[in-house]
Structures
1.
Amino acid sequence: MRIITGKLKGRRFEIPKGMDVRPTTDRTRESIFNKIEAYKYIDGSVVLDLFGGSGSLGFEAISRGAKSVSYVDIEARNIQLIEKTALEFGIEAQVRTTISDVQRFLNGNPIPYDFIFCDPPYNYPWMDEMINQILDNSWLGEEGWFILEHDKYHNYKDHPHCFFSKAYGRTTVSIFEKHPVDSEKNQL
């Protein structure tokens, strides 16, 4: 994996064989960050990366100016890889990690984030409830975005908080706001 741009541009990290992760492709990652940078400021933002996996989305966010990223993943090996990579990149002070089931984590005390990245397994059984848990509680800041990667079998275009949804190959990216979107924002 490589960091696309920012202060870590071109830095690479390896994902050991046998790890059960599905890293966001360069094309999808670039599209997500292009959307963010067109409408938001990532500089100084506080990010939550649910299902952290390889950590690629959070590392890209830090490279582009995010203040910090908190990763949540149930797999200790994934968290160890994220911590190792953060140390190699010299950004360990900006990274927090939690080994936890995402559902259990989100049932805890919410902290508002500027951006929440979420790339669950495509067959994640708690998908719709997770979206509501994030939006109905205080996990997003007032202007925060919840960025969900999912497969084509889930469709959130009509969700009242979803203002963007686009397929990139097998992966669809849907972006939600804390408050229901108006029709003008649906035109993004």
2.
Amino acid sequence: MPEFDKDLRSIQEARDLSTQAFAAWKIWSHASQEQVDRVCAAMSAAALAAAERLGTMAHEETGYGFSEHKKLKNEFAARNVWESIKDEKTVGVIHHDPAMRIYDIAWPVGVVAGLTPSTNPTSTVIYKILVAVKARDAIIIAPHPSAAKCSYEAARIMAQAAEANGAPPGLIACMQNISLQGTQELMRHKYVALILATGGTPMVKAAHSTGKPAYGVGPGNVPAYVDRSADIQKAAKYIVSSKSFDCSTICASEQAVVADKPIAGQLAQLMQQEGAYFTNEHETHLLRNLLFHPDGSMNTATVGKPATYVAALAGFDVPQGTRVLVTRLKKTGKEEPLSREKLTTTLAWYEEDGWEAGCDRCIELIMFGGRGHSLIIHATNPDVIMAFGLEKPVFRIVVNAMGTLGAIGLTTGVMPSLTLGAGGVGGSITGDNVTTRHLYNIKRLAYELSAPPAAAMVPGQPDPGPSPKEIEQTVRSVVEEILNLR
């Protein structure tokens, strides 16, 4: 047998898995609600049981974050996501409006290509498989190359549980030969109906460029505004804990604190007690050069790393127990690299006098790199909170909660999800937390509500003009005239 190159093996694998998934989907698209729920419940239980092992695998393979935090994310994906959708009807008639005489009928999309990131490689796989299979779709995971093994293992565990409970083989699959060409082949394959992409901007753009329906969700640049009316101690604790959770590998993590000037000193002091280290100007400059390349791209060597590691890599020491590095900034935009999204334990810090100025600074940060994503506000003044809700170009405004766990729906009432839509302003087709309801279509069975207007029942009047016989006579006369001229 000839030994094919990696890209060729990857392309062939994408084709084979797509064909198998399509065949399995044709069977699964006729599954009953009871069958769907039994399979999903079994997958949820299997993923929950493997949450710790998968978390360890993810940490060891990628080198990102902490195993125990990845375990928590796996548990969230297996338990909270499932609990949020388990009672949702996804088969047959899912809604009836007697007044409008309309029946809504769920119809699966087909085969979903699920692109997953290296930062949340197992939890995102668990979540995507659950929401897709619940919608009676097939799904093929295309993992990030640096997380291929742990992502495959998560998919394998869920596929095994699904098939043991009646799902057809091939319904759930994960690529093992990872290459750019193979992923592109998967996204463009004729049997793939929809792309669910979570990750960096280039990958999301690639998904949208295929011409297929795609939920593409990229980076956020989430500011956390702390108002003078806030519970300052709670805000300090939440911000440090959220930013350091799994070393800031969730896109909803706080990227900058915008502190209201009268409480900025107190907030800084309380954050220091929680493990924040405020860098001096020299250390800030070292971080500026370390975290980003001259073209603005992120230095991946710093992604998902503890604060002590990042400081050492930059070339300065921090006290033992430091959880977050805080850099005091005055500018926002390309001229200040640290005002970008930082998928690591470094946090920007701004001070503004009054909520209006804080609002403006937050908008600058959002427009620079987080359009449509999320914002955190710590305040008790309802007028200030509502003003932020009304004015910010984001689709999640999380109030007095951790950004990381609040925006994904673990500690707030938003839909549990690991793919957070950024809406039209952010280049996404939805601003929702993407879930099962985004992965099936709805047919509508509509009865007549009223008789058609009388005018619609009357035959239309033909346009005035020559009759066919008159046209024939005209043509004959023209032909004869031409012949007579010869």
3.
Amino acid sequence: MTFAELMIEVGRWATVGIAVVMILIGLFFLFVAAVGVLRLPDVFTRSHAVSLTDSLGALFLLGGLAIYQGFTTNSVKILVVLMLLYLLNPVIAHATVRSAFRCGLRPGSSDDDDVLV
């Protein structure tokens, strides 16, 4: 094995390592979002927790997948999905909270009043 081949192999393993770490960080944030949905009391706090951690989890998860794929058409598709998630996630969270507010729910209400769950 020549030195150039060795450096290519080391670079390939480093890329896979970075991708795996990013995917694990993304999965952690998505797990925290799921716990937030289960633990927080009303739709407003749940939406807040999910919108923040979901965006961060998607960034790391999809970024890790794009790095793992390398420069291919699949990585371009993954980056397009990531861009759409970043554009649409705040809009979806805002629409959810606004519809809950228009239905008569107020922040700090108890679970008995939460009809969207």
4.
Amino acid sequence: MASPELPTATSVSTYSIGQLTSYFLRLGTFGFGGPVALVGYMHSDLVETRRWISEAEYKEGLTLAQLMPGPLAAQLAIYLGYVHYGVLGATAAGLAFVFPSFLMVLGLGWAYAEFGGIGWMQAVFYGVGATVIGIIALSAWKLTQKTVGRSPLLWGIYAASAATTIVTESEPILLFLGAGVLVWGVRAAQQRRAAAISLPAIALPTVLQTPLVELLTQIALFFTKAGAFVFGSGIAIVPFLYSGVVKEYGWLNDQEFLDAVAVAMITPGPVVITVGFIGYLVTGRGADFWTGTAGATVAALATFLPCYLFTVIPAPYFKKHGKRPGIVAFVDGVTAAAVGAIAGACLVLGRRTVFGDGWTPDWIKVALLVLTVTLLMRFRKLPEPFVVLGAAVAGLLIYPLVHG
């Protein structure tokens, strides 16, 4: 329902921290649809309907979430919690938003590790794999349209990043940072003798480490990098995770990684919470539940702690510096490189999903992929989790016929 006049200035809190926590707990439990849908829910609920947050405060939070690395929706939730209740509100909002979906992926990780080898689960993921590729491809295309625009420089960065990902099957962080510096330098030069533009000093977060077991330490370090260096919405983390989880460490194979992405699609809350599922598989496969839980917990904490700090620490200063041209240019360059990497990773994963180990396509997967893209383009409001669940049912029906 549309509201007439929305407040634009910082207002006094009209809600309690308990109400705030309750809202984000509910959004984390029932909020399907990925980062774009989740930030839309927050605007509709908190700005338009309840009027807890002003339009200006929401936009500040959204801009900060786009500027800082980490999952978009989680960072916006943390910032909105910060608006009236400071660090305590940010912590409560962040935990309430992430915790429900963490419990869900923990349960799915346990079921996958325990029963992943049985037929029905193989059948489910047979149908889901190609569908997930279709969803990622569409998301990549939307991100491309939204972020790259008509800038030849950004298109060049996008193409270079996509090609690098396809050829090397990895995602160099230095390429991202270089892209940000390049765009910043070019735009600064174009602003004829503009006043020196400098990035504000931002305290980097301390890396969370759990040095009890070597594997947990590796998980902590890798997922901290994922949380600290990946810009963009939740889907942007996919190529980075693929590069590390599959290529560098070999913790998961291609199919298992696609299954992890599928889990992200069918659970509510932030997409990035699938790191908990991955963490469970890394330590819990062949071990007990608590060992898997340790891996899931370390992976989730390592991923979300940087984004929490990157939101809370600069929040007080953001109103002063967030709109400076130099920072905007740097983020534009990084975003173009990130979206290009998503497109490249989509091709790499798509080829492996549809063609397997050779060059003979699995025509059923091809049909599922095409059907997914067609449905989502034709019915733009069709929730993605429904499509994934439909693909799971298709897999259950088709897999026994194909594989006996």
